[in-house]
Amino acid sequence: MISAARRIAFDVLRRVEAQGGFAADLLHQQLGKTIKREDASLATELTLGVLRSQRLLDFLIQEQARRPVEDLDLEALLALRLGLYQMRYLTRVPPSAAVNESVELVKQSRKSSAAGLVNAVLRGLLRRGPRVNVEELLPADCAPAERLGILHSHPTWMVERWLARTGEEATTQLLEANNRPARSACAVHDPAQLARVEESLRAAGIVTQPARWLASARYVHGGNVVATEAYQRGWISLQDEASQMVPLLLDVRPGQRVLDLCAAPGGKTVPLIRAAGGAQYVVAADLHLHRLLVLREQLARIGIQDLRMVALDAERTLPFQMILGGTFDRVLVDAPCSGTGTLDRNPEIRWRLKPEDLPALRAKQTALLAHALEHLAPGGRLIYSTCSLEPEENEEVLDAALEQIERGGKEGGPEGAARAGRGAKSGAEILAPFLAAGARVEELFDSEGIFRTLPHVHGTNGFFAAAVDRQRPGSR
Asked: Cα–chain-centroid distance for residue 29?
């Protein structure tokens, strides 16, 4: 009999591979209240662990099977990955159980013809020793990026980029961080209620710890946070610490007009609404209506209603002439991106992303930012952010959009020059009041004043956030 955890992991991995789903979302759908906590924990470990270790697992499977993994049926390959992952990394799982249940998974997925292969390969790996030192199996002339890519399960092209920018030591640290389970952090929407939130979570069996960077954030583990009173009543949301810091950098003041251009699913919209003094000052936009409906559900859970939401294609001219005067004092462009700063949380991204995707993303992001700048009021501030580590999506987008907007101004486009800058207050000055005791704000900004977090340095997702200020007419 196949355990619930293995069945769920197998199904989620198949849908990730065949349908392009995201493991975290699929797990959330399947791990309902009827699943035991132990099964939910194991299913999550198996699913995300296999995705994080996929290239190394495939290397060993291919060696033992003596055929390319691409030649295997998907169901057989997934069963092999699951079985080998358990034998190699989970000491509490008997190897015989890992083998037998992997064989059963193939049989029950109507691929009985592959059961013999799965059984033979896994038992061969078991005899050989599933914890074999893979580095000893690599050819002597294996290039550094190839070697690190196999050992740490990342695509070679991605490793090559990071090696060229940061060197082997920092790249290795980043690869290791990407393969550690993502730490769960929650945003407490009303810091004055922090003690109440912690008490409620403890009562539900959730262990809380003070977060490293934000005074109002907490790390949580040990249970299903979404099922707790604190979450259901809208006191908290699950959100990475770096992601929580990005909207704070806008320095929104009460009564200011705010545009959240890529708003869904809403994690950054909530602090913008609270800082502005109400939903009436904020417009939330997104490309897809169904994502805005998710945003509305999240806001309703938190107790926020009557937010103006607009479904639009921000790569085109924005239709805001009739809304709040057509310009905004504060604009957040948290752009769709490659997500290379979130590979611990979304490990499937590393296997989907291709180097040729980056130019297309850059073009899309540049258009988003340039159109957003057209609606930034004189004296206003815009934050452009991504959860990408790639300069094509960060510095290069910022430079290209500013050049485009300046060229537009000379040719009859929007008046006033836009410039990257720190404004009246630097990002560090803005963020400092929100930080936890002992947190050093200067560690979050580079020499240009750009907010930049790295998984292996800050223990958060990798984020980039840069400010753009529009000068008032006549100012220098």
From this structure: 18
* Region class of 205: left (phi > 0), else alpha (psi between -120 and 50), else beta: left
- How many Å apart are CA 29 and CA 100, to the nearest integer? 27
Segment 134-178, tens digit of pLDDT = 999 999 999 999 999 999 999 999 999 999 999 999 999 999 999
CA dihedral over 30, 36, 38, 39, signed as positive or negative: negative
Residue 387 in contact with residue 462, Cβ under 8 Å? yes
Between helices 74-89 and 95-108, what is the axis angle to 10°? 170
**328-334 and 376-386 as β-strands: parallel, antiparallel, unpaired?**
parallel
Q: Which residues contact 80 (CB under 8 A, 6 or more apart)?
A: 57, 61, 65, 72, 102, 118, 121, 122
- Tens of pLDDT, residues 446-464: 999 999 999 999 999 999 9
* CB neighbour list of residue 115: distance below 8 Å, 6 or more residues apart: 103, 106, 107
Residue (of 337, 398, 336, 330) closest to 370 by Cα position:
398
If phi > 0 it is left, if psi is from -120 to 50 it is alpha, else beta; for residue 106 that is: alpha
What residues contact residue 314 under an 8 Å CB cut-off, 6+ apart? 261, 262, 285, 287, 367, 368, 371, 372
What is residue 123's three-state secondary structure? helix
Would you list the domain boundaries of the chain? 4-138, 241-470
User: Shortest CA distance to 120 belongs to which of 67, 173, 165?
Assistant: 67
The burial class, CB within 10 Å (0-12 / 13-18 / 19+), for 127 is exposed
DSSP 436: P
Hey, CA dihedral for 78, 82, 99, 121, is it positive or negative? Answer: positive
- Reference 48, options 145, 153, 197, 190; nearest CA is 153
For 260, phi then psi, to 5°, come to: -105, 100
262 is catalytic: no
Q: Give the homologous superfamily in CATH for domain 241-470.
A: Vaccinia Virus protein VP39 (3.40.50.150)
Phi, psi of 452 (to 5 degrees): -150, 120
Distance between CA 205 and CA 278 in Å, rounded?
33
Spot the catalytic one: 186, 262, 337, 387.
Answer: 387
Cα distance between residue 11 and residue 108, in whole Å: 12
Cis peptide before 130 (omega within 30 of 0): no
Alpha carbons within 13 angstroms on the beta-carbon side of residue 63 total: 16
CATH: 1.10.10.10, 1.10.940.10, 3.40.50.720, 3.40.50.300. Which one for 4-138?
1.10.940.10
Whether the pTM exceeds 0.70: the reply is yes
